[in-house]
Design goal:
The structure is a single chain. By secondary structure, the chain is an alpha/beta fold. Helix content is 39%, strand content 13%. It contains eight helices and eight strands. It has an eight-stranded mixed β-sheet, sandwiched between helices. Helix 1 (12-23) crosses helix 7 (196-208) and helix 4 (59-72) packs parallel to helix 5 (99-114). The longest helix is centred in the middle third of the chain and has 22 residues, at 148-169.
Length: 259
């Protein structure tokens, strides 16, 4: 039995993953953006180990989420599932960041730094990460005209790259990125062509399976098969430049010197 925390687990892929893991007998800690969202799944959360509440667009609330999780105890795995898609405008978080960038990239970065280090980390990315480009010049969209699709693609490139960087820096942790596919969730839309079940079973497998195939690190996964990620993801120079930018923007350093 594993203890697993899943961000964004009140609906969609996160909730599906939580149901699967609980049905398998694992202890799951859920996450809701607000108390209202938590109340909407009160029946499901009653069967969970716990539920934590906080808005991933706010660094202060992200810190609170991490503290709530750490109070419950060390997790065996964390699935960074939460994300937002096509925002109409850049938006401003309390810290002044673009909302897509804050939720999809900065929040998992900070949670990784602040939650007691688990044995396994899973980050949800997207096939759209391949359109993310290779520049970090305007990572927070302060200069460019807003482009919702490009902002999403970049955020997913960054999170896949972060997963690969963690695998390299922390050899004692299994860190992987998962592309769930274009699945029919609220985010993906009813007409999405991919398999909803396979969309969440890869991350639950990586989080809890004892199969040798699941106990690897640094992979980019789609439907339990490893795929090639964009070249930037495994480029050590790009990894280090990204991590430095994230540390500069948050004043939180994930990797210490030499580790």
């Amino acid at each position: 039995m594993s203890r697993i925390f899943i961000t964004g687990s009140t609906d969609g892929l996160g909730l599906a993953a939580a149901r699967t893991l609980m049905n398998e007998g694992h202890d799951v800690v859920l996450h809701a953006r607000s108390r209202e969202r938590a109340a909407a799944i009160s029946e499901r959360s009653a069967a969970a180990l716990g539920i934590v509440i906080g808005d991933l667009a706010s660094a202060t609330e992200v810190r609170s989420i991490a503290e709530q999780v750490n109070t419950i105890g060390r997790m065996d795995a964390v699935i960074h599932n939460a994300g937002i898609y096509l925002e109409r405008s850049r938006g401003d978080t309390p810290e002044g960041h673009a909302r897509t960038f804050a939720v999809n990239t900065l929040a998992p970065y900070l949670l990784t730094a602040w939650i007691t280090r688990p044995a396994r980390l899973i980050y949800l990315t997207s096939g759209m990460h391949r359109s993310g480009g290779n520049t970090l010049d305007d990572i927070d969209w302060k200069k460019r005209p807003w482009n919702a699709s490009q902002a999403y693609s970049e955020s997913k490139l960054y999170i896949a790259t972060l997963a690969a960087a963690i695998a390299r820096h922390w050899p004692d942790v299994l860190s992987n990125a998962v592309d769930p596919g274009w699945v029919p969730t609220k985010m993906g839309g009813a007409g999405a062509p991919d398999d909803l079940e396979m969309g969440h079973l890869t991350q639950t497998w990586l989080a809890a399976s004892d199969e040798g195939a699941a106990k690897v690190s640094g992979g980019y996964w789609y439907h339990r098969q490893q795929r090639d990620a964009a070249v930037e993801v495994n480029d050590v120079g790009f990894q280090e430049a990204l991590v430095e930018r994230l540390a500069g923007l948050t004043s939180v350093r994930l990797f210490e010197e030499g580790g």
